[in-house]
Amino acid sequence: MKKILGVYSTPGRHWVGDGFPVRSLFSYQTHGEQLSPFLLLDYAGPAPFTATPHRRGVGEHPHRGFETVTIVYQGELEHRDSTGAGGRIGPGDVQWMTAGSGILHEEFHSEDFARSGGTLEMVQLWVNLPAKDKMAAPGYQTLLDREIPAVEMPDGAGRLRVIAGEYGESRGPARTFSPMDVWDLRLNARGVVRLPVAAGRTLALVVLRGTVEINGAEVAREGRLVVLDREGADVMVEANNEAALLLLSGEPLNEPIRGYGPFVMNTEAQIAEAIEDFNSGSFGSISPATA
Fold this sequence. Notes:
Elements: E1 4-8, E2 14-16, E3 20-26, E4 38-49, E5 57-63, E6 66-74, E7 77-81, E8 86-89, E9 94-98, E10 103-109, H1 111-116, E11 118-128, E12 139-143, E13 150-152, E14 158-164, E15 166-167, E16 170-171, E17 180-187, E18 192-195, E19 202-209, E20 212-214, E21 218-220, E22 224-228, E23 235-239, E24 243-250, E25 258-260, E26 263-265, H2 268-279
Antiparallel strand pairs: 1-22, 2-3, 3-4, 4-11, 5-10, 6-9, 6-11, 7-8, 7-10, 9-12, 13-14, 14-17, 15-16, 17-24, 18-23, 19-22, 19-24, 20-21, 20-23, 25-26
């Protein structure tokens, strides 16, 4: 099986806008090429919000050169962007946005969730684009819970949702620019699974809730990141109690990473170009919200 390289704890929470208290479980500044093609993962919540007429969230901001993947576990979000796309996602739904050559977007708690209040829990993952696709046309995929295949694990160990990639005969609905698997896994107490991951692939496990033992060797608790070697194949996970985790695996891009805030490219010159293009208005605009 794949060798465990490290189990990492997370720093304290910080706010993104006024709607997302997040813990950054990894970023390209901390793990860089080691986790390619994955760049960053923020885990928001679970956090209670009181009812309000105020729009909580993050207002208009740009991205270029990568994709954002938002997975909602509790609560409800609304999105709009400069391609004219948008929508509402709730528990179990996923928003997969390709920034590509440049996009403006905004993300807020939905009006219904804001009015009622409740618990928000979500993950946002940044996925790098290969150099040849950095300037791809921006796009947006809404992946509803009912469209995401769910597979029951052997011996009642739990349940796995295939957001991207393949598990057995099930294929996730996400369209990706490079080969990868994004699996959303729920394990029952004492559930044991051996998860197939090919040799040569990046592999990370993100523990969102509960406590798990990896390969019979290392214990990872809530809010921990487990990074495994690309050599070897497969990983064994045993849940000490009910657990929720994400498995992220993919073919590494083996390309340089240069980032500046919301832009992730391959060279400093491309970053400078992104800033100039954004300042000149070439990312477009978001149409005013309609009542």
